[in-house]
């Protein structure tokens, strides 16, 4: 190589280097800009009352292997960017399939479990995927299963506090929040939700737990909780709402034959 081409080569090399550095830097900047969410909601639902909020009994189905609280979703709040470009296939979840079927089943006849998971990934998982440890469908669903194991509501209510599903016994909100305190900490970290049945009874249906990005309890997004998924329960009686303080709260047993009228 003569002097000139050597010099040109060096210059080109340096420009190339600068460009690479710059684009890496821009990529990082862009990633930070699109990854500003701070809090996640982890929602668990009780299959025994899930169907009360649906207006058409034929849409509901509780598989016979479902006996415990199931996952509704893991939703980052106030997201800027969801990577709709990331498709999900059932084969991505092959290894998790048995556990997902146990802990994250679709309770709608019209929707397969995989379609439920797929919707959750597209609407929520892909928005969380800019964070290490959540950045693939398999990692996202794996994390949800870990959280489900950690937040063992069945055990906290039933085994540890004697709050068992029943048609004829009711509880007070304080009993329920007291029983959940060992796993959710203070009242600000979680919302205990009820739904009204046809007879106007308040029935425990969902627990929403607020988590920080590092999965510790107690994230509090300052300006409201941001957009959350459309409520599944829109009728006919009332949507899911925070359980009221001073009323009897029922924890209905699961009825596989009559999922919409477990206690009639
Ligand atoms: C209830 O749902 C079933 C199955 O989705 C449908 O065939 C039926 O028409 C629905 N009934 C009403 C009243 O919406
Ligand atoms: C379901 O909950 C019951 C009651 O707490 C518990 O004994 C059982 O181990 C749970 N089953 C699973 C699969 O988590
Ligand atoms: C209360 O409900 C439980 C199951 O939910 C049932 O086993 C029990 O017999 C009922 N007790 C009365 C007094 O109705
Ligand atoms: C997790 O994140 C929260 C909020 O950003 C922070 O206050 C807390 O110290 C973090 N905890 C750990 C263990 O990193
Ligand atoms: C059931 O609820 C959905 C959502 O609120 C509504 O669009 C639909 O018309 C309702 N169907 C009946 C039969 O009430």
Q: Report the bound ligands by name, code or SMILES.
A: 2-acetamido-2-deoxy-beta-D-glucopyranose
Class by alpha and beta content: alpha+beta
Largest sheet: 7 strands, mixed
Strand content: 15-25%
Distance between the ends? 91 Å
Oligomer: single chain
Number of helices: 7
**Uncertain residue segments:** 1-22
Taking all residues together, what is the mean pLDDT?
85
Roughly how many Å is the radius of gyration?
Answer: 23 Å
Shape: globular
Q: What is the ordering of alpha helices and beta strands?
A: HEHEHHHHEHEEEE
- Estimate percent helicity: 25-40%
Q: Tally the beta strands.
A: 7
How does this model look, in words?
This protein has 264 residues and is of the alpha+beta class. The chain is built from 7 helices and 7 strands. It has helices at residues 3-34, 47-50, 97-103, 113-128, 137-150, 153-161, 173-184, and strands at 39-45, 70-76, 166-171, 190-196, 202-212, 241-242, 249-251. Strands 1, 2, 3, 4, 5, 6 and 7 form a 7-stranded mixed beta sheet that branches. Strand 4 (190-196) and strand 5 (202-212) form a beta hairpin. The radius of gyration is 23 Å and the shape is globular. The protein starts with a helix and ends in a 13-residue tail after the last strand. It binds 2-acetamido-2-deoxy-beta-D-glucopyranose (5 copies). One 2-acetamido-2-deoxy-beta-D-glucopyranose binds next to loops.
């Amino acid at each position: 190589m003569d002097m000139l081409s050597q010099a040109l080569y060096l210059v080109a090399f340096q420009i190339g280097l600068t460009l690479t550095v710059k684009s890496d830097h821009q990529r990082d900047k862009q990633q930070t800009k699109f990854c500003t969410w701070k809090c996640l909601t982890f929602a668990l639902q009780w299959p025994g009352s899930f169907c009360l909020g649906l207006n058409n009994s034929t849409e509901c189905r509780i598989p016979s292997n479902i006996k415990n609280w199931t996952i509704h979703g893991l939703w980052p709040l106030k997201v800027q960017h969801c990577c709709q470009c990331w498709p999900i296939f059932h084969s991505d979840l092959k290894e998790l399939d048995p556990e997902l079927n146990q802990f994250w089943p679709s309770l709608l006849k019209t929707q397969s479990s995989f379609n439920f998971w797929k919707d959750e990934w597209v609407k929520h998982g892909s928005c969380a995927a800019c964070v290490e440890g959540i950045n693939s469908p398999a990692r996202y669903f794996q994390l949800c299963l870990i959280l489900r194991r950690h937040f063992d509501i069945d055990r906290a209510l039933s085994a540890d506090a004697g709050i068992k599903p029943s048609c004829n016994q009711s509880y007070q909100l304080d009993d329920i929040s007291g029983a959940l305190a060992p796993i959710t900490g203070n009242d600000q970290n979680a919302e205990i939700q009820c739904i009204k049945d046809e007879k106007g009874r308040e029935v425990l249906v969902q627990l929403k737990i607020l988590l920080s990005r590092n999965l510790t309890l107690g994230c509090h997004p300052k300006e409201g909780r941001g957009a959350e998924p459309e409520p599944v329960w829109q009728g006919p009686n009332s949507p899911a709402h925070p359980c009221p303080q001073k009323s009897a709260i029922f924890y209905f047993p699961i009825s596989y034959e009559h999922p919409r009228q477990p206690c009639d």
